[in-house]
Amino acid sequence: MVALLLASLTLMTGVPWVTMMDWIGQATLWVLDMAGWLALTPLRWMMGSASGARRQRAVNSDREDDELDSGETMNSPNPVAESVTETAVQRTERSLAARWMEQSRETLMGWVDAVAEKSRAWQRKRCLETDTGDLLDAAVAVPPVDANDAQELTIKPAALQSPVASAECGSIAGEGRHSVRIEPIFNLPSASVELLEPQAVVQPSKETTVDRSISDLTLVPVLSTHSSSTNASPLPLTASCEEQDEIIPPPQPASRTRSKEAVADVPATPVTPAEPVSLTQSRTVAPVTTAARRVAPPRPSIPVVLPPLELLDSPLLRTTGYGSDLLDEMSRRLESLLKSFGIAAQVVAVEPGPVITRFEIEPAPGIKVNQISNLVKDLARGLSVTSVRVVEIIPGKSVIGLEIPNRKREIVHLRETLESLAYAQSTAPLTLVLGKDIGGNPVVANLNKMPHLLVAGTTGSGKSVALNTMLLSLLYKSPPRDVRLILVDPKALELSMYEDIPHLLTPVVTDMKEAVNALRWCVAEMERRYRLMAALKVRNIAGFNRKVLDALDAGEGLADPFWNPDNAEIPGEIAVLQPLPFIVVVIDELADMMMIVGKKVEELIARLAQKARAAGIHLILATQRPSVDVITGLIKANIPTRIAFQVSSRVDSRTILDQMGAEQLLGHGDMLYLPPGTGLPQRVHGAFVDDHEVNRVVEYLRQTGAPDYLDDVLAEPQG
């Protein structure tokens, strides 16, 4: 640390380190001198006081002896003697104070004179070192000389010890303790540097005497005769104050080459002397090839190949559940049933659908909705249907809805919903097809706006078919470069048919421990995407992809700000940012995963549900056991979009939707869809897709490309 401190101070101030050590030693001696003086001053004063007291006691004893000899009694008072004693004591004290003041003044004046002398000596040394630095700079500026013509100029030891030389060379140093130093010059050009054209050097004669001070001397670089143009050594600098009678060869520097015995075995090869180069002549320098990091070219675009709609079955002709005459008859019967229970109401509209028919009734003033809701089973018995569902609030209308199932149920096919205008005009890559509403209109949702979906229903309610419908709607809308899938299927039956499609990030996960690793990887990928979006100053994945695509269209790819050369595919190339695909995680049976893994899954799902929307990661969770230990409050709070199929009790309906109604559904795809941002569920009839249709679409996708699996998705966490 001390060496580093001295080196830094030398570089900053330009003062040699030897001078700094001299200053530090002088300062240390001065501090010790002052400390000793401060410690001895009280002792000297105390010793002076003690000697004065001894002298006063001796005077008093002599006077007492004189009084005894004169015959005076000891008890008789003597005012004159007492006054004389007091006067002598006062004089002694004044003399001690004066002596202490005189010593202090002399010490202070001596210290001031010493400081002034030190300052003058430092100034003289500083001037001498400045002149010596100028001489060294002049010596470095002198070009190197030829090995055959150069002579070494050294300081003669006898000359430095002679009185004349001491007088001449020490005239500048004054009274300083140290003689003039010549500091060596380091970091000279190495052997690979080409020497400039040698210039003529005036050789000094032996008869010539140097009659000048050291400030006027010139430092000459000396080239060793043993060195060549291909093996140059640092050049020693010498100075002289006397005649150049004797030449002292410079010491040979330590070399990292082979020993003399090894060199003797190698045959000598003639060395061609380097041709002189003119400073004014222009030289063409060849470009230096360096391992510069270059930006990798953008990846070639792969043509988008989407599956055709011909792979799906064509829908059958639509048949209406009820005719117009039958609907009119049912309206009159419904009014009479309500009147028999004491409720005055009138049917104002009828809306037939593929699965149910909704009657809109307007109750008389003073009739409460609860009075009609309590008559659900009685109305179903009176109309000879399986169930009746009361819609208490219809947005935009002041009527009450009664939903009655059709006698002949119509099948909603996936192909007709994919051919609808709502799906074709949707540009979102995460467009989901749910089915049709009670009026027969296709229901299309955007998973990016949900941003996560919770699906629950009993066995046989159509939950697995709804998952197939959603997945096929994604595969028909987006290529693999836009949407990637992670499928978790604990039953190893429902989603295993999607194996090896190019949209998958990993094979279909059937082990729950691997499923936890996949969710953990999604969390890490979410954090990585957040760092990338922060580096590009965008707020979501759509803004990130737009900025990257604009740069690629302009021919200037954006370099990855977190590029690591150790993980580079091609050494020396910086990866170019590419658009990030959306990642959809589909879990077919959440209850099984919660039973095996437990709280780990809940924490990972909650974290993804809270933050993964902006990163483009979305969840679709399905379960057939809608209980509070599976659909916990933490999951419900972070997944507002839910789909409820037929359940067995009102408690399960409240667990899923926070309201009743799912227990009155018909099953086989009949669902209540709760959109985000609203508390009113929408009744939807799910689209049906058969297994052979799914196999045809999956087989077509396998032929278009192979999957690009990531091994890190299912890898165990390190540490």
What features would you describe in this structure?
The protein is of the alpha/beta class. Among the domains are: 115-189 and 206-247, no CATH class; 324-405, 2-Layer Sandwich (Threonyl-tRNA Synthetase, Chain A, domain 2), CATH 3.30.980; 414-537 and 583-704, P-loop containing nucleotide triphosphate hydrolases (Rossmann fold). Helices cover 40% and strands 11% of the residues. It contains 19 helices and 17 strands. It has helices at 2-13, 17-69, 79-141, 157-161, 163-169, 260-265, 324-340, 369-373, 376-383, 414-418, 421-425, 463-477, 512-536, 541-553, 590-596, 599-611, 633-638, 650-657, 691-704, and strands at residues 220-221, 237-238, 294-295, 345-352, 356-363, 389-391, 400-405, 431-437, 442-446, 453-456, 483-488, 573-574, 582-587, 617-623, 641-644, 670-674, 682-686. The strands form four sheets. A nine-stranded mixed β-sheet has the order 9-8-17-16-15-10-14-13-11. A hairpin with a 7-residue loop joins strand 16 and strand 17 (682-686). Helix 2 (17-69) runs antiparallel to helix 3 and helix 13 runs parallel beside helix 16 (599-611). It is elongated. It starts with a helix and ends in a 15-residue tail after the last helix.
Secondary structure layout:
Layout lengths: L1 H12 L3 H53 L9 H63 L15 H5 L1 H7 L50 E2 L15 E2 L21 H6 L28 E2 L28 H17 L4 E8 L3 E8 L5 H5 L2 H8 L5 E3 L8 E6 L8 H5 L2 H5 L5 E7 L4 E5 L6 E4 L6 H15 L5 E6 L23 H25 L4 H13 L19 E2 L7 E6 L2 H7 L2 H13 L5 E7 L9 H6 L2 E4 L5 H8 L12 E5 L7 E5 L4 H14 L15
Parallel strand pairs: 3-12, 10-14, 10-15, 11-13, 13-14
Antiparallel strand pairs: 1-2, 4-5, 5-7, 6-7, 8-9, 8-17, 15-16, 16-17
Helix pairs in contact: 2-3, 13-16
